[in-house]
Recover the amino acids of this structure.
């Protein structure tokens, strides 16, 4: 089984997460050779770190936009 491998740093978060989910499903199927499994695992690790980094960046941006203020949002009644 062959997965397309676009450069990870060019993927939007949603696409990177979808590829990571596909890799996890493929690894759980136990239907790959050792070499394929290692390749998938390695790409999955890089994708997981990349997704985490994007989430950290988004959190930082939200904090900057809200001037670091924490506020509870309440729905109007």
């Amino acid at each position: 089984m062959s997965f397309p491998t676009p450069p990870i740093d060019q993927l939007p978060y949603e696409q990177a997460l979808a590829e990571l989910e596909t890799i996890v499903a493929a690894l759980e199927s136990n239907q790959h050779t050792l070499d394929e499994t290692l390749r998938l695992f390695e790409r999955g690790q890089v994708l997981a770190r990349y997704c985490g980094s994007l989430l950290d960046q988004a959190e930082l941006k939200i904090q900057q936009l809200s001037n670091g203020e924490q506020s509870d949002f309440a729905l109007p009644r």
Helices lie at 13-28, 34-65. DSSP finds two helices and no strands in the chain. Residues 10-65 form a domain with the Helix Hairpins fold (CATH 1.10.287). The chain has a mean pLDDT of 88.
